Amino acid sequence: MAKKLHYFDVNGIGESIRYILHYGGQKFEDVRYQISGWPDKKVKDALPFGQLPLYEEGDRSLHQSLAIARYVASQSKLLPNDLWEQAVVDSYVMTIYDFWFTKVIPFVKETDAAKKATLKKEILDESIHFFFSRFDKVLKEHNGFFIGKLTWAEFILVGIIEAGNLFLDYEIEKNYPHVKAVVQKVLSLPGVKEYIAKRKVYAL
Ligand SMILES: N[C@@H](CCC(=O)N[C@@H](CS)C(=O)NCC(=O)O)C(=O)O
Fold first, then answer.
1. Ligand 1 centre and the CA of 13: distance in Å?
2. Does the beta carbon of 11 lie inside 6 Å of ligand 1?
3. What's the CA-to-centroid distance between 164 and ligand 1, angstroms?
4. Pairwise CA distance, residues 186 & 79, whole Å
5. Ligand 1 pocket mutation, candidates 52, 99, 101, 202, criterion most atoms within 8 A of CB
6. Which of 13, 54, 97, 162 should be mutated for ligand 1, with most atoms under 8 A from CB?
7. 13 CB under 6 A from ligand 1?
8. If DSSP states are collapsed to H, E and C, what string results for the chain?
9. Which numbered atom of ligand 1 lies nearest the CA of 14?
10. Cβ pair 154, 192 in contact under 8 A
11. What is the mean pLDDT of each run of 10 residues along the chain (204 residues)?
C-alpha cells in the first residue's frame, strides 16, 4: 500500500517519523511543504485539523505526529509487544513532548523580543536541566535506552533535540552523556544514517 508522509520541509516534529520509516526500510513518499508562504489555504483547509504532519496509507489517513510515529514504529519493529512496556514508552514520549510544547514552542511563537529572551533563558537555565537530567538518569539505569532496548521513544527524543537545537541555537544534550549517546546511536542506525547523509541541512 502506498505510504505518504506530509510535512514541512524542515526537521520539526516530522523528522523523527522520517527516521522511523527509514530505519524500518519502509518505502514512503516524503511530501514536503514550504514554510515560507504558509498557510497555503488550499492545503491547510484540506487537512483534518489544519496542521501537519499527516500520514497516508492507501486511502486512509492519520494526523497527530505521535499517533503517526507510534503507528509507523510498530511497522519498523520499534514498538514493544508487552502492553506495560508500550505504556512506559508512551509516557516518555509524552514527557519529551511536554518539553517541546510547553517550553520550546511558546518561545518559538513569541514575537516580543524581550519576552522571547526571557523564555529562552528559562529554557536554557531551568527546563533543559529539569527534563534532560531525568531522561539521562533513566537512560543510564536502562542500558542506554528508556526501557533497556531500542524503541520509538529514542527516535522522538532525538527528533526533538535536533529541532530544539536549531530553534535555540544550542546543544541541549551537551551536559547529559547518556542522552548524547542516544543521539549518536539513533543518527548512526541503518537507514537513518544513509538518509541523513543525503538530506540537506535545514535552516530551521
Ligand atoms: N499536536 C500536533 C501539532 C501539529 C503542529 O503543531 N503542526 C505545526 C507544524 S509543527 C503546523 O502544522 N503549523 C502550521 C499551522 O498551524 O498552520 C501534532 O503533534 O501533530
1. 8
2. no
3. 15
4. 15
5. 52
6. 13
7. yes
8. CCEEEEEECCCCCCHHHHHHHHHCCCCCEEEEECCCCCCCHHHHHHCCCCCCCEEEECCEEEECHHHHHHHHHHHCCCCCCCHHHHHHHHHHHHHHHHHHHHHHHHHHHCCCHHHHHHHHHHHHHHHHHHHHHHHHHHHHHCCCCCCCCCCHHHHHHHHHHHHHHHHHCCCHHHHCHHHHHHHHHHHCCCCHHHHHHHCCCCCC
9. 10
10. no
11. 96 97 98 94 97 98 98 98 98 98 98 98 98 99 98 98 97 98 98 95 66
pLDDT at 173: 98
Q: Is the ipTM of this complex over 0.90?
A: yes
Q: Which residue has the cell 529541532?
A: 163
- Residue 201: CB atoms within 10 A of its CB come to 7
- Exposed / middle / buried, residue 76 (Cβ in 10 Å: 0-12, 13-18, 19+): buried
